[in-house]
Amino acid sequence: MLFLYSLFFPFSKDYFRCCLGTLKMETVEVTGVSMKRSLSTDENDDLTQADEAKRRKVSECNLAKDQETLDNDCALSNEIVTRQSETPTAGEGRNNVEVQIEEEEEEEDGFLEEEEEEEDGEVESFADMMKHGLSEVDVGITKFVSSHQGFSGILKERYSDFVVHEIGKDGRISHLDNLSVPVDDEDPSEDVFTVLTEEDKQRLEELQLFKNKETSVTIEVVEDTKEKRTIIHQAVKSLFPGLETKTEDREGKKYIVAYHAAGKKALAKVRTATDPRKHSWPRSRGSYCHFVLYKENKDTMDAINVLSKFLRVKPNIFSYMGTKDKRAITVQEIAVLKITAQRLAHLNKCLMNFKLGNFSYQKNPLKLGELQGNHFTVVLRNITGTDHQVQQAMNSLKEIGFINYYGMQRFGTTAVPTYQVGRAILQNCWDEVVDLILKPRPGAEKGYLVKCREEWAKTKDPDAALKKLPVKRCVEGQLLRGLSKYGLKNIVSAFGIIPRNNRLMYIHSYQSYVWNNMVSKRIEEYGLKPVQGDLVLKGATATHIEEADVNSYSIHDVVMPLPGFDVIYPKHKISEAYKEMLTADCLNIDNMRHKIRDYSLSGAYRKIIIRPQNVSWEVVSYDDPRIPLFNTDLDNLEGKPPPVFATEGKYRALKMDFSLPPSTYATMAIREVLKMDTSIKNQTQLNTTWFR
């Protein structure tokens, strides 16, 4: 089934102001592309489960400006909490600053609010709303490399059908298989988690966060013993970092006085060599506790926010190698500074959809991008392909691979694609940036966001629009806070309040949009063989293939540049295509430096074809669409037997395993197998039909 849906929006006045030269409009050719079916990914799961309808964080948007530039410019906007299973690829500017951005990090003030559960009747209405979204052709995804006949299937009918295991820098696949806590004589007793009452914890938390005017909290020691006092001291210091304690006698009774470290001089006696601070972090122990995090239906940043809330610490003491999707079960390594394995393991008793284990103490944190990749276990349900078709498709994936397109999640999940915001930033059209992020738009959004946008459109008053937002940590809220602080005359500073990684996501989205389009043109023009003028990497340096060396390379060696000031371009027709596309967007390919250093694009190189590793698959039959079709790490820890499949069932599913390097999209590999459009717009159509 083919759902190619186009929205045509008029050019804005800001866009014309930006385009001072002659516009040479690009056209995207989609001839010869087989767009037959649609599958179900990312935000659409078994809607009969209430927890599947929660917490869709819809953020920035941007409505199409130059629809002559694209035949199908309709659009979704990105959840800006780095949600890929891969590390984003794109260079960042490195030049001197002419205009400095003031960037503020918003306080970590707790959880993002969860969206109320959707009513049963909203499946169809959501599909209708998503008709305003992007299709693959709108972001340059038009080609396939294999010749097999495609077939239908549903991806992520349940989020448990998509499991991601991180591959560390040593090549080891992360698994949660041990919940035990390392034995350490320095750890306090387990009683520290139960000795304080809920009232005590509330008062201590308010003291820790400076939420009251009190300078201390006093806790009476009932059943006074030295051991009991020691446990209370340990509980306060371990559960509420930054607080100090001392013991006082008052009218014959013992009290523990907790006070903030900032008030130490006034409340605590001077410590001497004979009275050192107890319970400090042991010198012999590594400063970082590494652990494996198993999570269900949460993205990595949300998970860290939850952990930091329960531990009463700032999220920035956590480190990780890559961010993972929300709509999946994911297993990855996390490191946290000076939090004991004992405290972390205690969270297993009070958190749902999380499990922490495989604890160890290390000297160093984790670094973003250190991973080798991710291993995927994916179930495609209700497939229509014959066993022969499946065999052909999977053999092709194993032997040839797939086009390394940036997946649809790179471009957003509401009615405006993030690449349009990125383009406006690069054009220095700051009024356009604000307009694209805050203006009303069709499609699926939370009610309070709709009201916020309507208020902004009506009043252009950031304070009034902010009052409509119960959750102010979304991109819209952050931008409105910036506009309230700096005013509409200083949008650059206002925009700088949004965290840097989130701002750069817009620009990287534009780079990805250009790259997708150029790779489609490259494959259409030259096919799946290296040609003279293509680029290959020698170490970290890109070089052109000379005519005499063409036979020395394969298509798997060829790379294409993301546009920037520090890359070279192919020496054939595609070089001119890059120039034409950027010129149509009022950008100069020979000058990708921005007067704001953060927004200068250095560029990068990306392989055009990826061949997955460790590929295996099987076709299974099943009758109940609600049952899981394989065991997770948690199932194995709990001793659940593996599922037993009938020889014949009502439905058939394809279970596939494969490994991918960082910054590649599993949905693009699955697209190659099924020969189907992976956009939410098309996925919801198939899911709606399936639910009926």
Automatic annotation (TrEMBL):
What does the subunit section of this Swiss-Prot or TrEMBL entry state?
Interacts with SIRT1.
- Tell me what reaction this enzyme catalyses: a uridine in tRNA = a pseudouridine in tRNA; a uridine in mRNA = a pseudouridine in mRNA; uridine(13) in tRNA = pseudouridine(13) in tRNA
Q: Is Protein biosynthesis found in the keyword set? A: no
What region holds the TRUD domain?
Answer: 401-611
Read off the CDD domains from this record.
Answer: PseudoU_synth_ScPUS7
Write the record's keywords in alphabetical order, separated by commas: Isomerase, mRNA processing, mRNA splicing, Nucleus, Phosphoprotein, tRNA processing
Protein's job: Pseudouridylate synthase that catalyzes pseudouridylation of RNAs. Acts as a regulator of protein synthesis in embryonic stem cells by mediating pseudouridylation of RNA fragments derived from tRNAs (tRFs): pseudouridylated tRFs inhibit translation by targeting the translation initiation complex. Also catalyzes pseudouridylation of mRNAs: mediates pseudouridylation of mRNAs with the consensus sequence 5'-UGUAG-3'. Acts as a regulator of pre-mRNA splicing by mediating pseudouridylation of pre-mRNAs at locations associated with alternatively spliced regions.
State the source organism's domain of life: Eukaryota
Family affiliation = Belongs to the pseudouridine synthase TruD family.
Q: Provide the protein name.
A: Pseudouridylate synthase 7 homolog
Q: What are the recorded GO MF terms, alphabetically?
A: enzyme binding; pseudouridine synthase activity; RNA binding; tRNA pseudouridine(13) synthase activity
InterPro entries the UniProt entry points to: PsdUridine_synth_cat_dom_sf, PsdUridine_synth_TruD, PsdUridine_synth_TruD_CS, PsdUridine_synth_TruD_insert, TruD_catalytic
Concerning Pfam families, the annotation shows: TruD (PF01142)
Q: Which SUPFAM superfamilies match?
A: Pseudouridine synthase (SSF55120)
One GO cellular component term noted in the UniProt record for this chain: nucleus
Where is the protein localized? Nucleus
From its record, what is one biological process in GO terms?
A: RNA splicing
Has UniProt tagged this entry with the keyword GTP-binding? no
Chief subcellular location equals nucleus
